[in-house]
């Protein structure tokens, strides 16, 4: 983490008491969460729910990127958007909801989606990155920036009742361009989704972030979790780096934990 | 010999099934297996699995018995009876 650890207040101890009971987290783990910063790209059904759980867990700083205004069709899954905010900026609705939940969290927002133009600056603000964008060009921009700055990147995505999750540790694991060497030609931005499905993979992504920051458990690095909620099959599959990957081939595993 | 194919997400929808079995000549490779399976399938399934040049789409993640097989190795990856081919299409829903 880039920020040094600081003591918890009594109010913080009271708020986080139940998660500090996790034996290998304790007060030190909570101090690590407080000192940490996380970027979440897009606050839809997946990213919004990741941000909600990270705010609840007491992450010190959240950097949030999401363009556009709240639409009725957002509301079946995007839990940071509210009916009274229809037609108004999504990023404002998200910030308001997160601050209502936990006013201790410092929130930086941008009303733009992630792009090649802003990715490096946004990634530069944080320790860990969460990718929940619905378009591959945004995901590739974030992957390039995260690998370039050797920041861990939690990749979470869903479609219908399927979902996938992997944590990219630059220099150690495959990056997104190793997994998808070409821009997938068939992906469309509109996809079938229940909020309970996007929320399921979001909750797991938030756990990955908490593990990365506190050092507990093992992140799903070098493997992809594929979940089929129609059958309740959960499979953990190995994935491989590409020696010719244009993004991560030259990155060796020195800086990252 | 018989091998199993499992489709997920959009591929399951386009294939109309999550699971299929194909009967192949001994020592068939992965590319040939998928060519044989899709020879009687919809154009949409073929387009999602193959490029215009007839190679596998690099953005479809392919596993045989839960081990990844790079798309460019599909024509040299020899299958055995009872193998399970898993095809994961690219998904990006957020
Ligand atoms: Zn790579």
Give the helix tally of chain A: 8
User: Can you give the mean pLDDT of chain B?
Assistant: 96
Overall 3D form of chain B = globular
- How many separate helices of chain B? 3
Give the beta-strand count of chain A. 8
In which range does the helix fraction of chain A lie? 25-40%
CATH class bucket of chain A: Alpha Beta
The CATH homologous superfamily of chain B is called: Beta-grasp domain
According to CATH, the fold-level topology of chain A is Rossmann fold
Major beta-sheet overview of chain A: 8 strands, mixed
Using the alpha-carbon principal axes, give the shape of chain A: globular
Unique bound compounds: zinc ion
Strand residues, percent of chain B: 15-25%
Q: How many domains of chain B, as an integer?
A: 1
The CATH H-level superfamily of chain A is NAD(P)-binding Rossmann-like Domain
Which sequence of SSEs, written as H and E, runs from N to C of chain B? EHEHHEEE
Describe this structure in words.
The complex is a heterodimer of chains A (257) and B (94). Chain A is of the alpha/beta class and 257 residues long. Helices cover 34% and strands 18% of the residues of chain A. Chain A has eight helices and eight strands; from the N terminus they run H-H-E-H-E-H-E-H-E-H-E-E-H-H-E-E. Chain A has an eight-stranded mixed sheet, with helices on both faces. In chain A, helix 3 runs parallel beside helix 4 and helix 3 crosses helix 8. Chain A starts with 9 loop residues before the first helix and ends in a 19-residue tail after the last strand. Helices cover 24% and strands 23% of the residues of chain B. A five-stranded mixed sheet of chain B has the order 2-1-5-3-4. With 94 residues, chain B is α+β, with helices and mostly antiparallel strands. The longest helix of chain B is centred in the middle third of the chain and has 9 residues. The termini of chain B are far apart. The mean pLDDT of chain B is 96. The radius of gyration of chain B is 12 Å and the shape is globular. Chain B is built from three helices and five strands. Classes of the chains: A alpha/beta (257), B alpha+beta (94). The structure holds zinc ion (ZN). Zinc ion binds next to helix 7 of chain A.
């Amino acid at each position: 983490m880039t920020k040094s650890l600081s003591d918890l207040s009594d109010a913080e101890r009271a708020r986080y008491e139940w998660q500090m009971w996790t034996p290998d987290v304790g007060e030190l783990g909570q101090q690590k969460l407080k000192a940490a910063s996380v970027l979440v790209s897009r606050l839809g059904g997946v990213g919004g729910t990741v941000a909600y759980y990270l705010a609840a867990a007491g992450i010190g700083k959240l950097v949030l990127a999401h363009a556009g205004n709240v639409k009725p069709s957002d509301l079946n899954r995007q839990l940071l958007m509210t009916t009274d905010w229809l037609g108004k900026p999504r990023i404002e609705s998200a910030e308001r909801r997160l601050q209502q939940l936990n006013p201790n969290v410092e929130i930086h927002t941008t009303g733009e989606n992630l792009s090649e133009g802003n990715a490096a600056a946004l990634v530069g603000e944080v320790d860990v990155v969460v990718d929940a964008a619905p378009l591959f060009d945004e995901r590739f921009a974030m992957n390039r920036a995260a690998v370039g700055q050797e920041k861990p990147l939690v990749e979470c995505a869903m479609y219908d009742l399927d979902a996938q999750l992997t944590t990219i540790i630059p220099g150690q694991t495959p990056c997104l361009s190793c997994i998808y060497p070409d821009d997938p030609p068939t992906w469309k931005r509109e996809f079938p989704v229940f909020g309970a499905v996007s929320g399921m993979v979001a909750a797991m992504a938030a756990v990955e972030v908490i593990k990365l920051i506190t050092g507990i458990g093992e992140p799903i690095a070098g493997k992809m979790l594929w979940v089929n909620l129609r059958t309740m099959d959960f499979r953990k599959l190995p994935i491989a780096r590409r020696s010719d990957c244009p993004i991560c081939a030259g990155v060796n595993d020195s800086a990252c934990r | 010999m018989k091998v199993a194919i499992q489709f997920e997400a959009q591929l399951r929808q386009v294939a109309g099934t999550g699971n299929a079995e194909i009967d192949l000549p001994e020592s068939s490779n992965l590319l040939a297996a998928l060519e044989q399976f899709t020879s009687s399938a919809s154009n949409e399934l073929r387009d999602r699995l193959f490029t215009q040049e007839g190679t596998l789409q690099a953005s479809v993640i392919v596993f045989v018995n839960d081990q990844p097989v790079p798309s460019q190795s599909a024509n040299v990856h020899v299958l055995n009876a009872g193998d399970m081919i898993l095809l994961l299409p690219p998904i990006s829903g957020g």
